[in-house]
Amino acid sequence: AQSVTQLGSHVSVSEGALVLLRCNYSSSVPPYLFWYVQYPNQGLQLLLKYTTGATLVKGINGFEAEFKKSETSFHLTKPSAHMSDAAEYFCAVSDPANTGNQFYFGTGTSLTVIP
Amino acid sequence: DAGVTQSPTHLIKTRGQQVTLRCSPKSGHDTVSWYQQALGQGPQFIFQYYEEEERQRGNFPDRFSGHQFPNYSSELNVNALLLGDSALYLCASRRQVVGGYTFGSGTRLTVV
Fold it and tell me: Which of A2, A57, A101 is the best substitution to test chain B (most B C-beta atoms within 10 A)?
């Protein structure tokens, strides 16, 4: 079974400050990991994904995440927050061996950027 | 290149009614998954269709059913609507086995 825990349902940062959104996963096999962003009244947009290889993954809009197997974590960071980063962020995990590739999502973290 | 298209964008139904939601996958994609996102929650997997068959199903009752057509488009049907079925329904598509999913903007269903 797989699951995702996102610590902190709401995170507030000042514009220009570091963004850190936390994600821990539970999986019986090495997982695929994803971060999605959702703006109000919109669907999910893929920010970045980890499948295999380099554990530091760079995504769109300056975001990156590092897969740490020992900590079962996949935290999302951005060095300098921008007002346009305000949105809901979801971490997701899937089992590569499962051809259905069902995603298990966390409950999300709402990011507020303070001017 | 059109992404995933869902229709309608919003609808309101009465408890006990039936509803059909539609999804056109991204060009080149042959696999469609449906997710339910309740307010303030992460998306929950309903089921996945590939080659016109349901391949995997999440923990949803039989009131939720689906279909995939030869052109890879898909429908989600919900019978005997409950107030708790009110949610954003997301469709996601991909090419089988390859990469991640592309999500549509969703259909906001309100049951009154």
Answer: A101
